[in-house]
Amino acid sequence: MTQADPKKYHIKSFGCQMNVYDGERMSELLSDQGMSAADSSEDADLVVLNTCHIREKAVDKVYSDIGRLRRKDGSSPMIAVAGCVAQAEGREISRRAPSVDIVVGPQAYHRLPELMDVAKSGKKALDTDMPAISKFDILPSRGKQARPTAFLTVQEGCDKFCTYCVVPYTRGAEISRPWADLVNEAKALVDGGALEITLLGQNVNAWSGEDDKGQTQGLDGLIRALDKIKGLKRIRYMTSHPNDMTGGLVSAHGDVETLMPFLHLPVQSGSDRILKAMNRSHSAKSYLDILEQMRKVRPDIALSGDFIVGFPGETDQDFEETLQIVREARYSQAFSFKYSPRPGTPAAGMEEQIPPEVMDERLQRLQALLNQQQFDFNQQTVGRTTDILLERQGKLDGQLIGKTPWLQSVHIISPDLAIGDLADVEITQAGPNSLTGRIKERLAA
To answer: What is residue 194's three-state secondary structure?
Structure first.
C-alpha cells in the first residue's frame, strides 16, 4: 500500500552525543527536502527513532517506542529506525516490528530521502551499508544555529575492540574527516550563531589529518586552528581514549584559551586484571599519570569518566580497585553502568558472569562515591565568579540556564539577558547536579 508524502517529521535520539549530532544532521536533511519539524510524534507524518545499542535496555526501549507510535484510530506515521540498533539488527527489526518502514544505519542516513521514496511505494526500505564518510559530502551545509552551542563530528568508528563494546561493529573502523572540511564547517557554525563547538568522535582524540600546508596534525593541531576562528568562544571535545591522549593535546589545555578546562576520559575499571580482560590498552597507573599531566598544565581541570561494574570475572577486590581509582582521580562528574552483555561481543560469552544483585550493590556504592565527588566539586565553586554561556530557558519567569567552563549547569534570573549571551556570574549556591548564580556583568560577544 502506498503512502502519502510526509510533510512533518519528528526525530527522537537515544544515547550519546554522536547520536544527537546525527539527529541534528537528519533534521537538516529533511528540512532541506521541504519538510518541517513537529514537536511530537503525534503531529508527525515521519518519526525517526535514532537508536543506541550500547545497553540491552536501550534496545528494548526502541521496540517499546515503536509500539507506542500506533495512534488511537489505528494509523501510524511512517517509521524509520536509524542508528546503531538499525545497523546491528537490520532486517530483524522489520520482523519484530512490522510497522517499521525504514531501517537505516548510522553511516547511511544521508540516503534517508531515497529510502522514504521506497517506503512510500509500500515496500520496506533497508540500508545498513558502511561506506567511509561520504555522507558528509552529501548532507546539507551547516547554517543558522538554533542554539549557541553546536556539535561537530570530526572522527567516527573505533579500532579498539573492547570486549564489551559493539561500536566497531555498528560504526565501523576509525576514520577521520578531512581538515579543510572541518575548518569550513566550524566557520559555518560560528557564522550561523554558534559560540561553542564540541568536537565529537567515538575516539575523538584519535583524529588525524593533513592541514592546509600538508603537515600531519593531531586533534591538538585542529583545536589550535579552530581557536583562530573569530567569534568562537569555547571549544570542547569528547569522547577520548587514554591510548590517544598525546602530549600535544595535554599541552593545548594549558595554552589554548578557548579550550575549556574539562576532560571526559573513560577508564571503565580500576583493576588492571579487568582492564586486560576488557582489552583496554591502559593500566590504572598509566591512566592516573595522564590525569596528573593534565593537572600540571591546567590545575582547575574538571574530570569526567565512564565506569562499568560487574564485568565478567570482577571480584570484590577488582571492584575495590575501581573505588580506589575514583578516590585518586577526583571526578567532577561521571557515568557508571552495570555490565550489559551485547550479542556478538567477546565478553558476552565469557564465564563468571556476575549475578544481577551483586552488580546492583556495587553500582550503588560506586554511584554514591561519584555523586559525593560531584557535589564536593560543585560546592568548591561557590563564591567564584566565572563566565557562563546561556543556553536555554529555565522553568521560572526570567530564568536562564547556562554552562560554566567546567560544564556545570547554572541557573540565573535575569530578564535583561537572553539565550546566547555570555555573562560573568558569581556562584551563590551549589546542589548535587547544578549551581545557582548572580549576574555581575554581561560580556561582549
So the answer is: coil
Instruction: Give dist(CA 259, CA 25) in Å, integer.
Output: 24
pLDDT band at 89 (very low <50, low <70, confident <90, very high): confident
Q: Determine the pLDDT at residue 88.
A: 82
Q: Could you give the 3-state DSSP secondary structure of residue 178?
A: coil
Kindly report, residue by residue over 181-206, the tens digit of the pLDDT.
999 999 999 999 999 999 999 999 99
Using CA atoms, how far apart are residues 30 and 24, in angstroms rounded to an integer?
10
Angle between helices 356-380 and 316-329 (to 10 degrees): 10
Burial class (CB in 10 A: 0-12, 13-18, 19+), 404: buried
| pTM of this prediction exceeds 0.90 | no
pLDDT tens sequence across 37-68 = 998 888 899 999 998 876 667 677 888 888 88
272 pLDDT more than 60: yes
Please state, in angstroms and as integers, the Cα–Cα distance from residue 236 to each residue in 88, 263, 266, 322, 339, following that order.
30, 8, 16, 27, 28
3-state secondary structure of 329: helix
The H or E element containing residue 237 is strand 234-238
Q: Could you tell me the domains of the chain?
A: 8-127 (3.40.50.12160), 135-380 (3.80.30.20), 385-443 (2.40.50.140)
For residue 198, cis peptide bond before it (omega within 30 degrees of 0): no
Q: Are 62 and 84 in contact (CB under 8 A)?
A: no
Could you give the CA distance from residue 149 to residue 164 in angstroms, rounded to a whole number? 32
Say if CB 433 and CB 409 are below 8 A apart.
Answer: yes
The pLDDT of residue 55: 66
Question: Is the CB of residue 410 less than 8 Å from the CB of residue 354?
Answer: no
Q: Which three cell numbers stand for residue 40?
A: 511530537
Q: Which amino acid is at 22?
A: D
- Residue 126 makes CB contacts below 8 A (sequence gap 6+) with 90, 91, 94, 102, 103, 104
Contact 203, 158 (CB under 8 A): yes
Rounded to 5°, the CA angle 151-268-407 comes to 35
In which element (H, E) is residue 9 found? strand 8-13
